[in-house]
Amino acid sequence: MTRRVAAGAEFLRSVTGRFSSRLHSERVAAQLGLWLGISFTLAFATGLISHFMQHPPAWLLWPSRPVNLYRITQGLHVIGGLATIPLLLAKLWTVYPKLWQRPLFRSPSHAVERALVLVLVGASLFQLVTGLLNISYAYLWPFSFPAAHYWTSYLLYGALIIHVVNEWAKIRGRIWMREEAEPPAAAAARRRFLGTVVTASGLTALLTVGETYAPLSRLAVLAPRNPHIGPQGVPVNKTAAAAGLTATLRDPGYRLTVTGAVHTDLSLTYTDLQRLPQHTVRLPISCVEGWSVVADWTGIRLRDLMSRAGAASDAVLTVESLQMGGGYRTSEVRWPHWRDPLTVLALQINGSPLAPDHGYPLRLIAPNRPGVLQTKWVTRVIVS
Ligand SMILES: Nc1nc2c(c(=O)[nH]1)N[C@H]1C(S)=C(S)[C@@H](COP(=O)(O)O)O[C@H]1N2
Ligand SMILES: [Mo]
Question: Which label site among 70, 144, 285, 365 has the fewest CB atoms less than 10 Å from its CB?
Fold first, then answer.
């Protein structure tokens, strides 16, 4: 038994002895930490925006302008998250010799510090891995991704703040350490390593940003979605078939109804809708998964429909689709959005009737709004 323990200790010593690369230095770790701090802050802030746009508390009225705000914040969240992966891998490689540090805990405070690092590393890996798999449409887990990703972000960012405060004294010294204090060969190796990491991170961004920034769409070879592949040049998340609507959409008895807190209930056929004043708006679909694409949408203004029905100016609308189940079959529209002249119930995309997969006969399209709330196959508006 004691022989085995001794052999184990000897093995650890020999492994630790191999961490001779100068790149396992605290200075490299601190510099990567600075970049990670910036990118996690960006991801946390843009992630909160996305969460509260989708689940606003009653008092929170998101503005409908600027039109492209959500497109930009969610693009930053997803593309920035992908670009963070090389940074995190480099950081973990730089510090992993600490795993073999013995004794495991030198003191109670050292034990707490190590536990905190464990939480930080675990939560970071969880966020990046589940985020990456989610935008790749690999749903390999039994839990709800949005809820898990949201709650883990507090854990991660909380642990990050404590970690940074804790390490601040050291970090400050390492990042701004005068060049001369470091041997020239070590400084050159460090710069080469950091240069490689930054290049990998930049390339990741460059090869994915085309899924939201059209001029670079041909470069978006790493993006899971090409923004121009799909019926009518726009990608589709939920097809009509997947929503179980193939037969329903052929029903000539289709009506759009407006009910609830209104003076006059409305019930309109597809032909009625076509005869109402039509408006064309140029707006993006901005999916939470980071892709977005601009199209011309033609249809009736939601606010015209509301004045026809006689809804109160601060009414809350629930837009319902023909879809029977699924998390995105309805969405809520508050007054900043429904009173905006750019918000329409669209019959057409880029000059032709909506394809079934894009929400035929009628879909909602509004400015500065996550794609999941741009309800397709709309059949009812409930006013409250
Ligand atoms: N009824 C309904 N509407 C929906 C969805 C859905 O599953 N059901 N998916 C949403 C999501 S996640 C996105 S990104 C957009 C995509 O619109 P598109 O298929 O026209 O590109 O539709 C939204 N509207
Ligand atoms: Mo989406």
Answer: 144
For the Cβ of 291 lying below 6 angstroms from any atom of ligand 1, the answer is no
Please identify, by atom number, the ligand 1 atom nearest to the C-alpha of residue 293: 21
pTM equals: 0.93
Residue 334 to residue 340: CA distance in whole angstroms: 10
Assigned token pair, 325: 């189940």
Contact residues for 245 (Cβ-Cβ < 8 A; gap 6+): 322, 323, 356, 377
pLDDT value for 256: 98
Mutate to test the pocket of ligand 1, among 360, 374, 378 (most ligand atoms within 8 A of CB): 374
> Which pair of structure tokens corresponds to residue 204?
């990741």
Is the Cβ–Cβ distance between 218 and 210 less than 8 Å?
A: yes
Q: Where are the beta strands (DSSP E) in the chain?
A: 256-260, 266-268, 279-286, 292-301, 317-321, 330-333, 344-349, 352-353, 363-365, 378-383
CA of 329 to the centre of ligand 1 (A): 9
Three-state SS at 352: strand
d(C-alpha 333, C-alpha 330), whole Å:
10
Count of all residues that appear for the chain in the document: 384
Give the per-residue pLDDT at 7.
73
| Band of residue 311 on the pLDDT scale cut at 50, 70, 90 | very high
Alpha helices for 96-144 (secondary structure H)? 108-135
Q: Which of 290, 179, 197 is nearest to 235 (CA)?
A: 290
Asked if pLDDT for residue 117 goes beyond 90, the answer is: yes
Contacts by 172-176, CB closer than 8 A, 24 or more apart: 174/26, 174/27, 174/29, 174/30, 174/31, 175/27, 175/30, 175/31, 175/34
Give the Å distance between the CA of 370 and the centre of ligand 2: 7
157, 214, 294 from 67: Cα distances, Å = 29, 16, 11
User: Do residues 114 and 163 make contact, with C-beta atoms less than 8 angstroms apart?
Assistant: no
Kindly tell me the burial class for residue 363, based on how many C-beta atoms sit within 10 Å of its own C-beta (0-12, 13-18, 19 or more). buried
Distance 235 CA to ligand 2 centre (A): 10
Residue 234 CA: which ligand 1 atom is closest? 21
pLDDT digits (tens, 9 = 90+) for 155-170: 999 999 999 998 887 7
